[in-house]
Task: structure prediction
Amino acid sequence: MSDVHHQPDGAAFDVALILHVGCVAFGLTTTVASAATAMRLRTLLRTSAPFPDAVRRYFRPGVNWAGRTVYGIPVFGFLLLALSHGAYSLADGWVMGGLSILVGMVLIAEGVLWPAERRLQVSLATVSGAGPTLAESVGRDARVMVLAATAILALLVAGSALMVAQP
Result:
């Protein structure tokens, strides 16, 4: 007896799959933007150059809603499970592995990345120049952002590879 499941099909499954993959792609893009902007900020601090408008705009106060699109990954993932008509389930190791990776990613984003980003928003909104105290705290938070975003990127890539391979 074969352990291979039939491949789900249908318009609803296809749309859910596109939205699921779109959330992953958008999550990758926003995480790369977070890391790149934080790295640029660190470079600017080392050179004592003024912060360009693009960096200030990125760190303007407010919730990073674009980054929160990663929450669509499990929403559409569970929808895919439901629409697969038993071809895939939570009992599949690769599904649970992907869900575990996602939980780790969200914990890092909510516990490390986005709080550092919020602290930078406050620091950069309240100070017009780059003094030594600002440079130290901003540099620390920018470094935290780079490290957290890098970890999230690694998890997103690992999760994507797991979903494609479906071992």
